[in-house]
Amino acid sequence: MTYMGELEELWKTNRRRKPTVVGPERARSLRGPDFVGELHRLWVLTKDERFKDAIRALAQYDIIDQDGNFLRWMPPSLAKLQGDLEETYVEAVHTLMINCECSRHRACAEMAARSGLEATSFKAAIKHLDLLYSAYLKASVPRCERGRRAVVESKVGKIV
Known about the structure:
Elements: H1 3-17, H2 32-46, H3 49-60, H4 76-99, H5 104-115, H6 122-139, H7 148-159
């Protein structure tokens, strides 16, 4: 078996060991535009600002887009943890490149295998780490919320 084949087997093993996050999930049958439309209808009928505020909150937390469709959403606390984890991955890839004197591709493969990074395939996990590393090199700082407020404000204006 090749070295990359061994790393892929390690990735598969480590991926299975990851704990799953258990929590309340949105019903699959719930459609964002229908939900937002119902909140809007209730606001019009009752003149209760809480319905309008609910739509604003959904937009401000990036739970819906400007058309009312649900987006992939993560609570802010988990989003921060995800950002910290990504930064750790990038630092680990960089350390592997320096200490092992290996290529970026190989360092990404090592990190993907060791971490069991969630992806559809081992190659996708390597690509994800490579893209993360590139993004951090370009920004030279961890991901941040640049411009996010302007996007949220524009969404709220379009929805309500």
